Amino acid sequence: MLLSSRVKGVADSITQQLNEKAQLLSEEGQVIYNLSAGQLPIKPPQEFIEKIQQQLNFLKSYQYSPVNGIPELRKKILQHHGATRQVKTEGLEAVFSNGSKQSIYIALGAVIDPGDEVILLAPYWVSYPEMVKFWGGVPVTVKSTAFDGFSPALEDIAKIITPRTKAIIVNSPNNPAGVHYPEKWMRAFADLMKEHPHMWILSDEVYSDLTYFDPAPTYFYQHAPELIDRTMVFGAISKSLASTGLRLGWTIAPKGATVAMGRIQGQATSGPSALIQRALLDFDLQHLNRFLEPVKVHLRRSANHVREKLKSSDLAQLWYQSHSAFYFMLDFSRTPMFARFAGEHPEKDYSKEICQELLEKHGVALVPGADFGLPNSARMSLTMEEVPFQEALHRLAIFLNTH
Ligand code: PLP
Predict the structure, then answer these.
(1) Do the beta carbons of residue 234 and residue 34 sit within 8 Å?
(2) Are residues 164 and 266 in the same domain?
(3) Which helix (H) or strand (E) segment is 21 a member of?
C-alpha cells in the first residue's frame, strides 16, 4: 500500500493484539482475569457528572472552543498547578488538548527537529518512543529495574546526554512501574538538568493524584525553580477523575511553547471538547481527594495482596514496593517459568510469548513489558475487585512457578 515511510516506522502495539485475544476468549465463554486495564473501573465523581449534565443546556457547549482552551479554565488549572506544587507560575500558561496524549504529542512537535535525541527512562509509557519517532526524533533509553526500585541511575542519564539531546521525558508517578522517583532522585536530577541548558524537560504527571503510600511525590522544578522556563508539565482528567473517555488533558509550559503548541493543535484538531471544559471549569477540584480516597484504599489493599502472594509462593524475589499509579511490574526473568521460554537465549525478549501462554492456559491478561522498554516483564493492573484479583494472583503464581 502507498503509505508514508513515517507511518511505517511506527510500531503496532502488542497490548492491543493481546486485548483482542482476551476479548475473543471471553466471548467464547472462558473466564478471563483482565489485569491489563489502564483506567479506573468506576464512573467519575457525581459532582462532575452533574456539571456535565448542566452544561448540556448551553449552546456554547456544542460550539468550537478557543484552540488552546477556554481562557478561564486555563487560568484555573494554572492556579491549581501553582497551589498543589507550591511553585510560582509567572511566565507560564496552560493549553488544553484532547487528553494528555495529544498534549505530549504536540509538545514534542513543538520542540523536536529531525535527528534530535529524546531521552526516555525505561520502563516508560508505550507511546513516548513512537511519538518521538513520528516527529523525526531519535529515542534514547536509560533502563531501571525492580532492583533499584525503578529509579534510573543519574550517572546513566548523564552519560547519554549529547549536544543533540533536545529533551528528556520524566514520568513520575510512573506507568508502568507504579512508583514515583524519590525526592533525593528529583533533587539530583534537577542539579543534572541545570548543567544542560540546551534541553527541555517534559514532566508527565497524569498520575500525580494517585499515590497510596507515603512519601508523596515531589517534582524536580520544585527543587530548582530556574528550570521552569524549559519545563513542560502534563496533566489530565483521565486518571484523577476516572474519565479516560472524555478526552481532556493539559500542558503547563512557558508562553512561547504554548503558542507553538497552539499552532499545531489549531491546524490538526482545534480546541478540545467545549462541553467537558465547561463542566471542568464549574467543578470544584476540592472534590478530588474525597473521590480518590476509596480508590487509594483499594490500591493499597491490592499492593498488599501482591506482596503476600509473592512471599507465600516463593516468589519474593519479584517484590518491590509499589506506591503510586495503579500498576505493578513483574520481572519474568527471575521466575522458575522463564527457563522454559528462554532456554539457550535468555538475552532475547519473550514477554509476548509468555503473556500469550498465561492468557490462553490460565486466563490472566497482562501487558507485555516489551511495549514499555523492559524485556521479559509484564505490567499488572491493581484496579480489579478484591476477590477476582486474588484468584488472578493465585493463577499467576502457579504459572510463574511452573518449570
Ligand atoms: N501519560 C501516561 C503515563 C499514561 O499512562 C497515559 C495513559 O495511559 C497518558 C499519558 C495519556 O492519558 P490521556 O490521553 O488519557 O490523558
Answers:
(1) no
(2) yes
(3) helix 14-27
Mutate which of 126, 169, 238, 248 for ligand 1? The one with the most ligand atoms within 8 Å of its CB, which is 238
Alpha carbon of 319 to ligand 1 centroid (Å): 25
Rounded Cα gap, residues 314 and 63, in angstroms: 58
* Residues 101 and 240 both lie in one domain: yes
Residues 204, 384, 149, CA angle at the centre, nearest 5°?
45
Residue 101 Cβ contacting ligand 1 at under 6 Å: yes
The span from the CA of 97 to the CA of 99, in Å, is 6
In 88-142, alpha helices (H): 100-111, 127-134
d(CA 341, CA 234): 39
My answer on whether 149 and 267 are in the same domain is yes
Report the interhelical angle of 351-362 vs 386-400 (nearest 10°). Answer: 120
Q: What is the per-residue pLDDT across 327-355, written as a single tens digit (0 to 9) for each?
A: 999 999 999 999 998 877 878 999 999 99
Is the CB of 209 inside a 6 Å radius of any atom of ligand 1?
Answer: no
Q: Which domain holds residue 31?
A: 5-43+288-400
Distance CA 62, CA 118 (A): 38
Best substitution site from 97, 100, 169 to test ligand 1's pocket, by max atoms within 8 Å of Cβ? 100
- What's the confidence (pLDDT) of residue 11? 77
Q: How many A from CA of 254 to the centre of ligand 1? A: 22
Which atom of ligand 1 has the smallest separation from the CA of 174? 3
Q: What's the gap in Å between 274 CA and the centre of ligand 1?
A: 20
Do residues 102 and 151 share a domain?
yes
Mean pLDDT, rounded, of the chain: 95
Answer whether 244 contacts ligand 1 (Cβ < 6 A): yes
Whether residue 373 has pLDDT greater than 90: yes
Q: pTM of the entire structure?
A: 0.96
Final residue of a structural domain among 284, 308, 325: 284
Residue 386 maps to which CATH number? Answer: 3.90.1150.10
What's the whole-number mean pLDDT along residues 118-137?
96
